[in-house]
DNA sequence: CTTAATTGCGTCCATTAGACGCTTTTAAAA
DNA sequence: TTTTAAAAGCGTCTAATGGACGCAATTAAG
């Protein structure tokens, strides 16, 4: 929430933070750190102990510097976290052949894998954000896959948004546990048992799921449904 | 993160908080507040000033009591927020007739409306949560709509999850602004202009969207795609 | 060699959520 | 009616947080 612009620039600091300009004057002491070191440290901390463990103090400790030193490299915590997110996302896989459906499927699966690997990324991708370079690269890659379809640009964006929502939602559900559905069912069990009269369908559906010993593949189920839906549209 | 159980119950406090038991011994001074008053105050505060404005202090001020008094009604802030969410969600609409597709569509649209009306609800529905009574009621309603389909319980749950993800994601994007896409395009404009060589497809797609003067209906676009996909499955 | 930009960071502050324990209220038990 | 103990209200205190500010040390440009 602070402005770190040395010049009277009009862009918000978040944009500047994510899309930095190289200008490097050569006066003054040499920086002891790199912005990238800080971002990596923040991401690593989030990976091991969750996003709440990422405090300026802790990141500074990891790097062996004082807390306030970080502010020479990063305008604030918000920006640091945004950078860590883009760092965790990384570059999209480049699959430039095959039919759009397979490509898009691979795209979504890989995105899901990345986000699941950094569950904290889900906690912070909230609201209208400014995408970082890697995030935009993912978008670009997804749009490339849709190029052979008759969809217009707007529809293509909508398709990617839809896929992103599904990836995010699915990854979110499984964050923190590797058998999320079983866990949820366990949590819900007592509640449903107590109020089975109020929620008969829900109780039945969960019983069904447990009996069927289904694995956690709500993600791919939904993914296929979505791709079916898009296919229906492109076929028109 | 604290345990408020008067008895040595084994359930986590969140469950107890969301699914309270009426036991009301009649000793001691009469409570000056209701849990519901507190929850309403918290939700109202979040509605007007965002989730960050919801502090125990502020809620207490609104109600004219001391901060620590709230802890007699609510185990902690986490639980208060969970309660506020369920409060904001409210009961699902009861549309018990018509084909499953229309019912599900109405269900999703209404859910979208509610969540958009309380944008803060999106910031806090993260990870595996314990659903409150209202949330479960929505689930129940959604499952009811799917009863006429040949899908099994597990698939029905997956469909609802998918829809929920889409609703959440869409509502999230538009939180904080009523023309989110235009806003995003504005934010992205300078970036894309600067790096149009790296993101040609993205630039083109956004240009397409702006030219087409499309309104913000990524939500219903995706919703129809999803329902198409489900229809494909049920038709098999 | 002088100068000015730039770094590292110590100090300070405002805000949080929450623990703990005291006092007061009030219904149940004697 | 008196005694008793459960429960409510909440003042006080603590630890953690993000961040403003300004000073001293560093180092390249002039």
TrEMBL record, chains A, B:
**Pfam families reported for this sequence:** TetR_C_1, TetR_N
Q: Where are the transmembrane segments?
A: none
Entry keyword annotation includes Repressor? yes
- Which keywords does this Swiss-Prot/TrEMBL entry list? DNA-binding, Repressor, Transcription, Transcription regulation
Top-rank taxon of the source lineage equals Bacteria
Where is the region Disordered?
A: 1-34
Repressor found in the keyword field: yes
Feature: DNA-binding region: 55-74
Instruction: List each copy of the HTH tetR-type domain by range.
Output: 32-92
Q: What is this protein called?
A: TetR/AcrR family transcriptional regulator
Record the organism: Rhodococcus artemisiae
């Amino acid at each position: 929430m602070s402005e770190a612009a040395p010049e009277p620039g009009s862009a918000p600091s978040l944009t500047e933070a994510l899309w930095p300009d190289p200008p490097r004057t050569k006066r003054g002491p040499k920086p002891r750190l790199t912005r990238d070191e800080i971002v990596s440290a923040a991401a690593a901390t989030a990976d091991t102990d969750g996003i709440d463990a990422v405090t300026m103090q802790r990141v500074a400790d990891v790097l062996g510097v004082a807390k306030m030193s970080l502010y020479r490299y990063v305008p604030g915590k918000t920006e640091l976290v945004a950078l860590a997110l883009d760092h965790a996302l990384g570059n999209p896989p480049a699959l430039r052949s095959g039919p759009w459906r397979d490509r898009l499927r691979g795209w979504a699966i890989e995105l899901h894998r990345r986000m699941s690997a950094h569950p904290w990324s889900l906690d912070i991708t909230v609201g209208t954000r400014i995408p970082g370079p890697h995030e935009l690269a993912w978008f670009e890659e997804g749009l490339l896959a849709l190029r052979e379809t008759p969809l217009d640009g707007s529809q293509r964006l909508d398709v990617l948004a839809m896929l992103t929502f599904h990836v995010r939602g699915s990854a979110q559900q499984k964050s923190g546990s590797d058998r999320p559905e079983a866990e949820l069912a366990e949590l819900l069990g007592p509640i449903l048992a107590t109020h089975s009269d109020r929620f008969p369908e829900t109780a039945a559906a969960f019983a069904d799921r447990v009996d069927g010993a289904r694995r956690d593949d709500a993600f791919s189920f939904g993914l296929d449904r979505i791709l079916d839906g898009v296919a229906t549209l492109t076929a028109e």
